[in-house]
Structure formats: structure tokens, C-alpha cells
Amino acid sequence: METTGQAALLATWEAGLAAGRTGRALLLHTVARPDAGAEELLAVPLGQRDAELFGLRAELFGERLAMRIGCPGCREEMEFTFDAGQVTGAAPPATGPLRVELDGWRVGFRPATPGDLAAAERAPAGLARAVLLERCVLTAEHDGRPVAARQLPEPVQQRMAEAASAADPCADVRLNLSCPGCGGHALAELDIASYLWEELDDWARATLLDVHLLATAYGWNETEILALTPLRRRHYLELCADA
Predict the structure, then answer these.
(1) Under a CB-based contact definition with an 8 Å cutoff, are residues 200 and 12 in contact?
(2) Which residues pair with 81 in a beta bridge?
């Protein structure tokens, strides 16, 4: 937490309260890559963004992520940990256009970016996938004739998703788990942007409570309190509790 200023993190959290899912992910990515502009961040492959968010998470809260998921078989809650280093150490996404061929269909496309997701979120209900296709498909043809991206059949779209996942694995982190109770299997999808935002939200609210208690007890302002090391802040809070 020392590497990234606490006041800056609180400002990021405050801005994210009124933002949607994509907006919060962009704010977090800005913290991870402070020298990049919004246009640059919106244009990176999702896997690259998520790998950088895993790195930010390790910097702020450590590499071990604690997670919970309900077993689809017995409904028992499973707890497990995940090491962010497994993602930050993964191979970078493939560069250049991707291509798939299936039953006379030939498609050239690129991996989705945060900007693509933002455009899909703004699309009318039921058109999000069509928007993603239109933005990501570079060329498409059937039996040698050009076709529109929206004409691609479901099997071709599925093959595209598989190719994108192979080329940009960090964009779709899924964990195969075994329930210790019933032995059943569960698939957990790890959305690092949402996970990290929830952690930042918890941290920000706890930090503001610390500021409130210390400001009430000692008359210090927020800047002075945030300048305290975590150890000194905790000792002052313990003194307040004992008073």
C-alpha cells in the first residue's frame, strides 16, 4: 500500500462509486499504469489489462486471493486461495490478427479490448454480442464471399471465442475446483477487476472510519492521518479504544 498513495486510492474509489463495471476497471487500470491515457488503456487486449490488474492487486493487498464459491451439487460453500503470480507470470497475449476457419467460413479478428466492452455495455438490450462482433471482426467470408460480422453462425463464434482464449489466456481466468464435501466439480470464473474493486471498496470504507475516529480524538485532518504509517495508526486507534 505504500507504493501507491492512499489519498490517490481514495480518490480512485470515490470516482468509481458513480461508475459502472467498465468505468471502475478503467480507473483501476489507470492506477496500475498511471502514465497511460484513457484511450491507450481502452485499446489494450483484455488479458493484458487483467494481468496488470493482478499485478496491482499483488502490490496493494498481496498475491494470495481468498475466494468462495457454492458447490453446484451439494450447495456447500467452498473456500480456496489463488496466487496472482500464476497470472502475472503467464505468457503475454499473441500479437496480430487471429484467424479461424470452419465449414467454409473464414474469419479474421482481434481480441476484445476494454473499449469494446464499454461499447457493448452501451448497446441496446440484446445487441451486446453483435456490437462486439462488429468491432472485433476484421474480415469475414463464407465460401469466398464477404459477409457481415452479424451473419456469423454460433459454431463459428464459439470457435472464435476458443481461439481468443488460447491467444489471450489472462482474459478468461477460470478455475476447476473439487468440492471436499461431495466430490463434485465447480467452475469458478475470476473477474479480477470486480474482485479488486470490492477489496478497494472495503479498504476505503475502513480507512475513512480510521480517519473519522482519529480526527475526532486528536483533531488531525485527513492528510495528517493518511501520512501515518499503518503501525502508528493502529497504535493510535488502540489508544482511542482504551480511553
Answers:
(1) yes
(2) 66
CB of 9 within 8 A of CB of 200? yes
Q: 12: which 3 cell numbers?
A: 480512485
* pLDDT tens-place string over residues 207-227: 999 999 999 999 999 999 999
The pTM score is 0.87
Gap between the Cα atoms of 105 and 92, Å rounded? 28
How confident is the model at residue 93, as a pLDDT? Answer: 67
Listed residue (145, 128, 137, 192) closest to 161, CA to CA: 137
> Which residues lie closer than 8 Å to 81 by C-beta, 6 or more apart?
64, 65, 66, 67
The residues pairing with 145 across neighbouring beta strands, listed in sequence order, are: 142
Contact 207, 5 (CB under 8 A): no
Mean residue pLDDT of the chain comes to 89
